[in-house]
Structures are given as C-alpha cells and as structure tokens.
Amino acid sequence: MAAERGARRRLSASCFWLSCLLLLLARRAPGAGAARSGTPPRSAGANVRTFTPFYFLVEPVDTLSIRGSSVVLNCSAYSEPSPKIEWKKDGTFLNLISDDRRQLLPDGSLFISNVVHSKHNKPDEGYYQCVATVDSLGTIVSKTAKLTVAGLPRFTSQPEPSSVYAGNSAVLNCEVNADLVLFVRWEQNRQPLLLDDRIIRLPSGTLVISNTTEGDGGLYRCIVESGGPPKYSDEAELKILPDSEETPNLVFLKQPSSLVRVIGQSAVLPCVASGLPAPTIRWMKNEEALDIESSERLVLLAGGSLEISDITEDDAGTYFCIADNGNDTIETQAELTVQAQPEFLKQPANIYAHESMDIIFECEVTGKPTPTVKWVKNGDMVIPSDYFKIVKEHNLQVLGLVKSDEGFYQCIAENDVGNAQAGAQLIILEHAPATAGPLPSAPRDVVASLVSTRFIKLTWRTPASDPHGDNLTYSVFYTKEGIARERVENTSRPGEMQVTIQNLMPATVYIFRVVAQNKHGSGESSAPLRVETQPEVQLPGPAPNIRAYAASPTSITVTWETPVSGNGEIQNYKLYYMEKGTDIEQDVDVSSHSYTMHGLKKYTEYSFRVVAYNKHGPGVSTQDVAVRTLSDVPSAAPQNLTLEVRNSKSIIIHWQPPSLATQNGPITGYKIRYRKASRKSDVTETLVTGTQLSQLIEGLDRGTEYNFRVAALTVNGTGPATDWLSAETFESDLDETRVPEVPSSLHVRPLVTSIVVSWTPPENQNIVVRGYAIGYGIGSPHAQTIKVDYKQRYYTIENLDPSSHYVITLKAFNNVGEGIPLYESAVTRPHTDTSEVDLFVINAPYTPVPDPTPMMPPVGVQASILSHDTIRITWADNSLPKHQKITDSRYYTVRWKTNIPANTKYKNANATTLSYLVTGLKPNTLYEFSVMVTKGRRSSTWSMTAHGTTFELVPTSPPKDVTVVSKEGKPRTIIVNWQPPSEANGKITGYIIYYSTDVNAEIHDWVIEPVVGNRLTHQIQELTLDTPYYFKIQARNSKGMGPMSEAVQFRTPKADSSDKMPNDQASGSAGKGSRLPDLGHDYKPPMSGSNSPHGSPSPLDSNMLLVIIVSVGIITIVVVVIIAVFCTRRTTSHQKKKRAACKSVNGSHKYKGNSKDVKPPDLWIHHERLELKPIDKSPDPNPIMTDTPIPRNSQDITPVDNSMDSNIHQRRNSYRGHESEDSMSTLAGRRGMRPKMMMPFDSQPPQQSVRNTPSTDTMPASSSQTCCTDHQDPEGATSSSYLASSQEEDSGQSLPTAHVRPSHPLKSFAVPAIPPPGPPTYDPALPSTPLLSQQALNHHVHSVKTASIGTLGRSRPPMPVVVPSAPEVQETTRMLEDSESSYEPDELTKEMAHLEGLMKDLNAITTA
User: Fold this and answer.
1) Helix (H, G, I), strand (E, B) or coil at 154
2) Which parts of 592-717 fold into alpha helices (H)?
3) Secondary structure element (H or E) that encloses residue 9, with its range
4) Which Pfam families is this protein grouped with (predicted)?
5) pLDDT confidence of 1129, banded at 50, 70, 90?
6) Contact 435/165 with Cβ under 8 angstroms?
7) Cβ distance 606 to 629 under 8 Å?
8) What pLDDT, in 10s, does the model give residues 905-949?
C-alpha cells in the first residue's frame, strides 16, 4: 500500500509539472480557451486542484415484477470520499427512513418488499433514479429505470370452436396483457399440451397447429399463472375434417402486424393460411425473396410464421407473406421497425477554466429514434438561457463563467427504448498573481466602429503607457446591461486593436470594457462603453423536427414543431410539397403542427417543407423531407396487348406494362387468362413472374378462336385486366421455312404532304406472312422503314415534303426474313394545288376518302393558372357529342405566346384530350392561348384567344450595376445605387442592403439596411473614415428574397471633404453670372483629357501662357472684324426690323430692372478639335459666364432666381446618389472623347460686345449696344451646368438652364444674361459638356457648334460652356418670326467656314 501511495504521489507531481508547462504554452497564445482532459491552464498557487473520479459502478435497469413479490433496483457509485446515495421516484426524492417496505442497501441499491399493485393503487410502479452526492464536490444522477408490475390476467381474445381440413393449419387465439404472455400455457382435453416444431405458441399467446391430423381434434383452453390462482379461458373444440370435393377459398387464418423491436431482440411475424390444396408460404422483404434456408437468424415456424433472431438495423423493412396453393395466390404485409438504445459517440470531457470565459461540453449520441438530450448540473436540470445554450444539437455552452458554475455536468440521452448518461467536471481556477513589473494602463478611445443586429466591432488605441503596443494582447469584457455575468473575447494576435463580438441579441444594450495585458499581467480597464445593437426584423426560424410518413397509397402525413426562434406569435404555417421529378411546387395553409395530404399519386415520392408565418411575414424554410406513398394494386391494365399465331397449336402473347403512373408499385408479374371463344366459362390461368412481357401459349386446338386477357400484379394484389383479345389458330401449319413471296399489287396516291399506300397480299397463301415493311424516301426507298401488321392493307405516309419525288417499296416478311420487294414512285402535290382529289378504290375497302369541309374551332377556351411556370388550357368541341367523349382520331393543337418582346413566335403542342398542361413558362408573364382541331386532313381555324398571367416567383437574379459613391461634404455618408434584377419574376417590393468590413464574414454577421418599395438608391450614414466596406444587395418581391449581388468594395475617405483632396468630387457649381474664381497661385487645374472627375494637376509653363494670350488676342480681332464686315451687309429694312424687336424687348423689361446694371455679352465659340485655357482680361470683375446645359427639347426652360444658387450643387450631388442614372461621368467621357472646353472672348472691352442671336441679323456695334443695354433679365439669372446623364433632374429639380430655341445650325449663339451680385463659384473638377441637339416635336434638328483651341498637345482643364440666357419667350418668338424669312443662311455658313480655316492656320502657327 505504501508503494502504491508513493506511485500515486509521483504521478500527481508529474501531472502538476506537465500542467504548468501546458499553462505556459497556453499563456503565450492570446485568447486561449479552457483546458480540457485534466490539465489546468494556470496554477492558482502552490496547490493545483485536480479532477476527482466520481461515477456510477452499477445503474438500475428496467424490471418486471408481480404483485406481492420483492424487487431490488441496483445502484453503486465510486468516489473518494464515499458518496451519499439517494433515490428518486418519478422525479421526487424518496423518504426511505420512514418507509417500511423500501430500504437502502449498504451498496446503495433499493430494496422493495411485498410489491403493492391494484387497479386504483400502484405506489411501486414508476421510474426510479439513483442520486449520488459528495459534499463540496457535487452531485451525479444515474439513468432512469422503469419498474413494471404485472396486472391481473385479462383475456383480450379467447379460443373459439373451429373446423379444419386434415393437412391444413389451425389457429386458436388466446391473447392476454403483454406483460403476462410469459405466463400463458395451453391444455388439450384438460391435459398440458406439449409444444414442438408442429405446434407452437406465438408471442401473443395464440396457438398454431400445422399439418393437422385426426389426433389434433379435441377441447382446447389456455391458462394464465402469474403468482396467484390460475385463470382459465373458455374451452373451444377443434374438429378435423376429411377432404372435400368442394374447393374452399384460400384465406389467411393469422396475418402479421407491424412490429417494433430493439437491436438484439427477436421478432416473430405470424402468417397462417388455409385452403385446398394446402397452401405453401413464402416470404419476401422489400420485394426480394428471403433465403431462409441459408440464414442462421431466419426460421420458418409451424404454419409459415417467420422468426428473426438477434435483430440488426438491416432487418428493418416491409415483409410480405405470400400463400399459394396452385389455384390462387394471396399475400399480406407487415412493417418491422428496428430501434436502438442511446449510445454515446463522444462523452463530455473535464474542463479547467477561468471566470468570464466561455466553455462547451461536447456530447454526441446516436440511437433510433433519434435521442433527445438534456443536461444536468449537480443533479439539477439545466434550463437553456442566454448564458446556458444547447449548440450543435447536443452540446452545452456556458457563457461568461462565474464561480458558482463549478460542479459536475451530465449529458442525459433518452428515446423510446431507453436512456443513458455521461458526465464531466468543471473547475474554475483563480487567476495567477501578476509578476513584478509595470502593467499597461487602460486602452484609449474605445469605440464601436460597426454595429449590427447581432454583432459589434470594437476598435481602440494603445494605452498611454505603451504607445507602440506591439507586444500587448487585449481582452474585451462585455455583458448585458443589468446582468452581473460578464463574458470575455480575446484578440487573435499581439498588437491587434480590434475585435468583433458575435452572437449578440438585437435591440439590446451591452456594456464593454477593454483590458490590455503584457508579460507582467493584466493592466487597467478602460471606461465602460455602452452600445445598443440594431433591431432586427422578427421573422420565424425553421420549424424543427419535420417528419413525413405515408399513411396510405394516396396520403402522406407531415408533422413538425414550433420554431425555436419564433420571434413573435406564429400565425400559421405553409406546407409546400412537390412530386419528385417535377418542378411544380404547391402549397397549403396549415394552422396546426401536422397535416395529412390526400389525393396523392400512388407509390410516388414527394418532398415536403414547412415555412412559419408571423405578423412580419414568412420565416426560414425547413429542409426538404422526402417520402413515398404506399404501393397498391395497379389501377390500369397492361398496354398494347397483341397476339401472334405461331402455328396451329400455339399463340404468342405480347404486352407492355401499365403506364408508370398507374403501376402503383413495382410490377412483380402478370396473370394471363385465356379461353375458347365458344366456351367462355372454361378459363385457364397462367402466372408470369418478373418483368417478362411475352408468353407462348401451347397445346391449343387447330382452327379454334381463343380469347386472351392480361392483368398486372404488385405485392398488393392483381390489377384490372385488359379487354378480351381474340386470335384463331391455323387450320393447318403454314410454311415458314422460306420468306413470303412478293405482294400481288401496290398502289400509291400522293397528296400535298402525305402518300396513301395500299396493297394486296401475296398470291401464295401457304407461306406465313407476319407483316409488311414499307420503305420510302426521296429518290431512294431506304431512307425510312415502317412495319405494319399482316392484316393491314393500307397505310398513310405522313410529314412529307410537297412537290417531291418519292420512291416507295413494299415487302412481306415472316420470322425467316423479308420477301421480294415491290416498287412504286409518286410525286407529292404542290402547296398551291387546291383541286379536289380524285376518288378511287384500289382493292382496299379501307382507303380514306378526303373531306374538304373545314371543322368547327374549339370554343370556351380557358386558361387556369397553376404555378409560376404552368397554365392549364381547357376547351370544348361542339363537333363532339354532348358528353364530349373523343372516339375518333382527332387531335388538338394548342399555341401560345407572350407579347413581350413583341416579335415572340408562337409555340405549339398537340393534345388528344380537351385540356393541355403548358409548362416552362416565364413567371409573372401574360400569355395568350388559342386552340385548333384536326381530324385527318381537315382542320379548323384558331379559336378565340384566352389570356393568363403566370404567378410570381422569387427573383432569380441579383440586382445589377451596384455602385457606391461618397456623399459630398459628408465623408461618413455613402450613397448606394443599383438597377433592378433582370429576372425580377414579379413586382419588386423592396431591397436589402448588406454591408460589412469583412467580405468573408457569414452573411448573418453583415449589417442590414432595408429599402422599402422600388427605390434604386439609398444613403448609409455614420461609417468609419478610411475603412474598406463591402456591399451586397438582395431584391425582394411578394414570393420572397432573390439571390445576392456580388460584393462591391468601397473605401471611405480619410478626412472631411472640406480639405479638398484631389480625389474629391466637385463641390461647387457655377451659379448665376458666375465666373472663374481667383484660385490663388497654388491652384493646379485637373487634366482636361481625363474622362474621370478626378484629374491630376498639371503645371502651366509661362512661355506657353504668353503664346496663348497672344493667340487669344489675334483670334478675337479676326473674329470681330469678320463679323463686323458681315453685319454691314444688312439692309436698312433689316435694321428697322431689328430696332423694332429691340424696342419690344426694352418695353417688356423696363420695369424689371435698371439699365445701368446691364453688362455687354460675351461671344463664345466652340470648335470640335480646339481647346484653350481661358484668359480673363476683362476689366469687369464679374464677366458674364454661365455653364451650358445640354438641350433636351425645344421647350423653354425658365431660369430660377438667385436664392436657389446655394443649394443647386447640393441637390445635384444628392441626385448623383439617389437616381438610377450614372451622374458621375460626362458625355464626352462616355463616348471616349476629350471633354470639350468652352472659351469666352473676353479680350475686347465690354462696351464693344458683339451679339449674334438665333433669330436676328447682326447689327453694328452701336446698334447692338443700344438694343441690348436696354434689356435686362427679370431675375438676373443665368444657367447652371448639369450633366447629360442626369436625365431625371429636369423634372425632379428646378435647376437653372439656358433658354435654347431650335434654329439654323450656325445661328446658335444666345444673348447673355445679367450677372447676379456676390462672388461667383467654380467647379474645377467637373468637366463641361458640349451642347447637343435633340429632336424637337415638329422642328428640324439644329446642332449647336462650339469651339476650343488646342495648346501644343498639353492637357488642359475642362471649362464650362457659356450660353447666356435668351429673352423671354414672347419677344424671342416674335424676333424669330420677323427674321427667319429674310435671313441668308448660306452667307453665314461661308463666313464660318472661312473663320474655321483661319483658326486651323493659327493652330498650326502656335504648334510650330
């Protein structure tokens, strides 16, 4: 003993040092979890707590007792010190101290003496459980054991008098309580009956006597002896009868019933039949014959019952008992279900842990039925809560450990067969004291950078004591507000300063704090951070435990339970079901937890799933469960029954199985019945097993007519038989040693797309002819071959080409081969041949006669919507009798199409009934249908059309063109734009935007932003700066959610947009009368050649600037001189009309402003290939400059007042994010061109402004000045540029625009407007857009030309197009009317062409 104790101490010391080593390794890995299997992760001091062995040596088992006897329920547990044993009955502790009949034995077993049991008093029967407790350690419980007390004997059935023919089997019933079957015995003539191989007692107590003899006759009774006085049944006489001339029907005396057995037990399937002659019994399992003789576990008992010993899982299935006596065959079936007690595949393991940690006890079990698992802590049931959770079906997770969580945890698995338990110990260790050295201070700036419904991402900065923090690890402690139990989450690596807390509850407040650790220990905690998770749409989870089983050949029952995550009251369930092999899913509303589906197809597999609904809508669907309906007898006869006379004494029968839908189970054979036509009562029957589809019937009489019919068999019985079919044997055996001779004649009759072929048989009738082979083809008879019956004398070859030459051959054949062919040729008629066909008969009374009368079209065409892709079309045919039964060879053609797109072609299908199922349609689509009828060569016109719209379906494609942009002025806000899915399959009712900083995160961890309605844009605010985000979008319609789009990445800016980073979007807008602002000497404009709004700065050389200034001056002088010369050609009458127009203008505006504020206009020229940086030489501090919008039509667009200038840009940028069009690129960028730059000729003094209007001729400078200085825009408003792609901005925003009227292509210069007060603004990052012409309603299209000047190949910033505002509509219209008739467009065209040549020369000079 001393040596053993020494060995134990050495083993304990070794375990201690091994534990310390493992603790050191775990300490190096931040975030290490709890230690398992007896190894403490950290020592709390010099003494290390070890796990204490504590388990049951013996546990109680189920016991059967009888009244008045004694019972011992065994129990023994091991522990040091010894445990205290107690007992529970039905969950309540027994008080054994004051109990006279129950006492605790020294080893812990329970002894019950003189078991009490009566009808109304059963104190000892129930479930017992042993409870072992060790103070300061914990408590464990054993598995439960059932004590059953046998009741008083009761006969549920007793033997009855019966008679049986000698050699048959006899059955005498005697059924008692299931717990008393072991106490049943039989007597014959009041003498004990000895059992043997011929006489057996079934497990129910029934007596079976096989192969009866005269000695088996007598009086029989059964006796039950269960400890008390024996109880006798009634006596019944068994008579043995001699053979009789009458043939009794074959019947079952005892049939098997479905059984449930546990692995390792035995089962007896009774099956006893009686009849004359005596039947034989054979067994099948799952449609396969059982080989009983070669099996050691299968035994055929007396009478034919089947015994299976030592049952395994493979023995489960359907067993068929088939009785056959030669005259008849009957069968029955029973189901054997095999169950298994719970067994542990993985037992819980002992765990060391610290407070605030999360642990998981693993428990994996198996059994049949699937066991349920519950957890017990120190003998008390663990109730699932926020901190005690059942995960992965059976595992127990404990979150945020506290000291009171210590103890023994047991996993208890239970099913209908039994229960089992396994346990483990949890030890909470104290944290080791910190070593000497400085500890880190509290982490700084703890913030929640991402808040979702079920997770929160925290970030922080390093402690002030350690600004680098590369070697620091962090622990995040968190708890629900108001809850003392705190959880911890560790960072994954040193130096990491962020962590994502998962599995939080929606709309819940959590308190977070962060603690840093270094090699010396944990430092100070940060200040608590209070964060509330986002609310979640409360939809139900999947319904658990969905099961389906076949209740009959046409019904299936489905059961399920209430969803665990119900998220509110469940209003109802929707049960979806679908036949295997089809795509048509149907549904039914259910208010309970089960539903029986009737009217299903027999022996057909169906899949089922359940979706729970609450007030928010449908929840998560369950997984599909598949089940097949039970088999049944076939519901239809075999098909295509044919008879072939072989000779004078035999006929071969051929057939095909019933259609698959009517087989109702696997076909096990066929039953053939035949008779002479003259003696219909004398029927002979032949049984064909397996899948054989032909049978030779021999021994028939010569020259005799016989009738034949065939029926299919399944394991359930015989189905309907075919109609009687007749055939006559030959009078004498014909010759079939050679092939038939040539047919005696062949005639052909061509039609448009068919040829009618008729013939007569060979002249030599002594050679067997089995049929005829018809070959045909264009130019050759070998393209197609058709074989017909030997009785047939004509055939119509269909689907031929019109106006084609066909060669036709005819050969008779038999089993030896084909005979000599007979040839004929014919040319089909052309399409245009509408002449009547000549009628003639060619030795064939069956030659069809054409009938040119057209048929009546079908009426009452209706379209019934069945699903998202299926519509049933029904109609009536007035040419049929009232009962609408089709008895001829007519068929119907259904055609359908949809009008989207408009050029969709019709699709056709043929039907032989008055309905047709159209499948493969598109969801939520309107279709039109019509029907026509065809009979032979007669067809009707198309019927009236019927319309139907298929049901909606969930979207099958994701939203398209997902883009993300940052909102100007708000860097923490982004705007998501997208387009609807291409396959919406219904009206889109909303979208869901998912975003996250981790593209690989589970989708339920992404933040959700719902979008209601069919909006195509959404703002998301309060994002973290300089952080990459990923976005996905999912569309929703009334049927559910569609697939998600691919993830789109977007990084938020680093700082506020006020810093004006180079990649910022344009934040300014050229307002009314705005000009280029003074950008300072540091300003560098973006590159003009870029198609993106983010241009890179390019410095401007001073020499180049001088060249440009000189060029501008030269161009300005040349243009002014040319236009002035041109203007002098105006006639005096034109000047008068001009003055009249000016007076009209002045008169209409004199009350709207002061003429002294009028500024002369600038002339802007836009050339296709030239650019020039604008040089502002005007002495006027506010020159007229407006951005030019793209004209969209010939309507007048009224300018807005100056008060709207401040928010124009804001609205436009908002529109970029909130409209479906892409407003981030210019038209030039979209076409792959350089943006065109608009250049104002400001080099001349404002007093000498030149004016060229679309509707008036040019005047001298003085006249122009006099006219235009009197004019002032009523509001002083000018236009603001906007992008061509923002098409909806015209109607959605009241943006200022230029007044543009359609005119001659070279008369598109507008009158400038008056500048507003205040400094102008300029958008340097927004490229300008040239004026484009669009088609007006009733006017010729007029293009607008602008000019730009290139600068030695250098990139230049885009400049805004300037088109001043025109006068008001009335005055401008009058000027247009006055001047249009007298204007000479060719003159201006020539001058502009000359000007273009001068500019090209100037460009060449500057380039050189």
Assistant:
1) coil
2) 660-663
3) helix 2-28
4) fn3, I-set, Ig_2, Ig_3, Neogenin_C
5) low
6) no
7) yes
8) 889 998 888 999 999 999 999 999 999 998 877 888 899 889 999
* Cβ contacts of 799 within 8 Å, gap of 6 or more: 753, 754
Question: Residue 504 contacts by C-beta under 8 Å, 6 or more apart in sequence?
Answer: 453, 454, 455, 456, 510, 533
Distance (Å, rounded) from C-alpha 1047 to C-alpha 1072? 42
Type of residue at 246: E
Q: Say which amino acid occupies 1406.
A: T
Task: Read off the tokens for 49.
Answer: 């707590």
- Whether the CB-CB separation of 1160 and 1182 falls below 8 Å is answered with no
Rg, Å, the chain Cα set: 50
Work out the widest C-alpha separation in the chain, in whole angstroms: 152
Separation CA 276–CA 278 (nearest Å):
5
Measuring CA to CA, which residue among 66, 81, 76, 157 is closest to residue 114? 66
* Inter-residue long-range contacts of 1149-1156, CB under 8 Å, 24+ positions, other chains counted: 1149/1270, 1149/1271, 1149/1272, 1149/1273, 1149/1274, 1149/1367, 1149/1368, 1150/1270, 1152/1272, 1152/1274, 1153/1272, 1153/1273, 1153/1274, 1153/1276, 1153/1314, 1154/1272, 1155/1269, 1155/1270, 1155/1272
The H or E element containing residue 1211 is helix 1205-1218
Kindly tell me if the per-residue pLDDT of 594 is higher than 90. yes
Map tokens 């072989």 to a residue.
646
Phi, psi (degrees; rounded to nearest 5) at 419: -150, 160
Distance, in Å, from the CA atom of 355 to the CA atom of 359, rounded to the nearest integer, reads 10
Distances (CA, A) of 1228 to 256, 988, 1235, 1330, 1341: 87, 34, 5, 8, 21
Length of the chain: 1408
Between these two residues, 520 and 1230, which has the higher pLDDT value? 520
Give the separation between CA 503 and CA 676, rounded to whole angstroms. 82
Identify the helix (H) or strand (E) that includes residue 1269.
helix 1261-1269
- φ, ψ (nearest 5 deg) of residue 389: -125, 145
Grade residue 874 by pLDDT with cuts at 50, 70 and 90. very high
d(CA 591, CA 562) in angstroms, rounded, equals 11
**Residue 463 has what DSSP assignment?**
-
Q: What's the rounded Cα separation, in Å, for the pair 666 and 1350?
A: 87
* Residue pointed to by tokens 């397996």: 690
Give the pair of three-digit tokens for residue 117.
């049991």
Q: What angle do CA 1296, 1299, 1303 make, to 5 degrees?
A: 155
pLDDT tens column, 234-257: 888 998 888 766 777 888 988 888
Q: What span, in angstroms and rounded, lies between the C-alpha atoms of 1242 and 1112?
A: 9
Who has greater pLDDT, 666 or 567?
Answer: 666
> At residue 77, does pLDDT exceed 80?
yes
Nearest to 721 by CA among 665, 661, 655: 655
Q: Are 272 and 303 in contact (CB under 8 A)?
A: yes
Tokens of 422: 């396994």
SS3 1236: coil
H or E element: which one contains 697? strand 694-697
**Helices (DSSP H) in 805-911: which residue ranges?**
none
Which of 171-185, 307-321, 801-815, 1123-1137 is predicted least confidently? 1123-1137
Strand order across the beta sheet in which 444-451 lies: 444-451, 456-461, 498-501
The owner of tokens 């095909």 is 656
The pLDDT of residue 1308 is above 60: no
108 DSSP assignment: S
Q: Using omega within 30 degrees of 0 as the cis cutoff, is the peptide bond preceding 159 cis? A: no
The phi and psi torsions of 242 (rounded to 5 degrees) equal -75, 170
The DSSP secondary-structure symbol of 735 reads: B
- Counts of helices then strands in the chain (DSSP H, E): 10, 91
Candidates 561, 657, 675, 573; CA nearest to 614 is: 573
| Range with lowest mean pLDDT among 337-346, 604-613, 672-681 | 672-681
HEC string of 761-773?
A: CCCCCCECCCEEE
